Amino acid sequence: VDMSDDCCGTCERNIERCGFDTWNEGGLGTGIGDEGEPTAKAVCADAFRALRQPESVGISPDAKYDIVTLCPPYEEIVYAELLEAVANTPLVTEDTIVMVEYPDELGSM
Predict the structure, then answer these.
(1) 53 contacts 17 by C-beta, under 8 angstroms
(2) Who has greater pLDDT, 73 or 33?
(3) Is 1 exposed, middle or buried (0-12, 13-18, 19+ CB in 10 A)?
(4) Tell me: the pLDDT tens digits for 49-102?
(5) Contacts of 56 (CB under 8 A, 6+ apart)
(6) Span between the terminal Cα atoms of the chain, in Å
(7) Which of 82, 29, 85 has the alpha carbon at shortest distance from 53?
(8) Which of helix, strand or coil describes residue 78?
(9) I want to staple 92 with a disulfide (CB 3.0 to 4.6 A). Which of 32, 96, 99, 106 is the partner?
């Protein structure tokens, strides 16, 4: 999920080049498997909106992700709000791996 068309385009090309544009058959990815979700996809939208209201940006609220990476703009984000949104989204489970990039100046989270 990114608001930049350029970033989303790059992600889409990388998804295709890595072979992650194939349909999931119960393996890695969304956890939906045979219902026809790709193992990866790029979504051009606000991350908070995608986390809080996934269906509003074309993500099934039933989708469950194995890995979520967050790389927000350092100076423009309140990390507590971001962590709250990812902790409460219907898109993750207790087994989801969440990676957050943040500046060293924040110390450890």
Answers:
(1) no
(2) 73
(3) buried
(4) 999 999 999 998 788 888 888 888 878 889 899 999 999 999 999 999 999 888
(5) 49
(6) 22
(7) 85
(8) coil
(9) 96
Eight-state DSSP code of residue 53: -
Strands 67-70 and 97-100: parallel
- Partnered with residue 92 across adjacent β-strands are none
49 burial type by CB count under 10 A (0-12 exposed, 13-18 middle, 19+ buried): middle
The rounded distance, in Å, linking the Cα atoms of 74 and 23 is 34
Helix, strand, coil percentages (3-state) for the chain, rounded to 5, are 40, 10, 50
Helical H segments across 1-109, by residue range: 5-17, 47-52, 79-88
Placement of tokens 């099934």 in the chain: 60
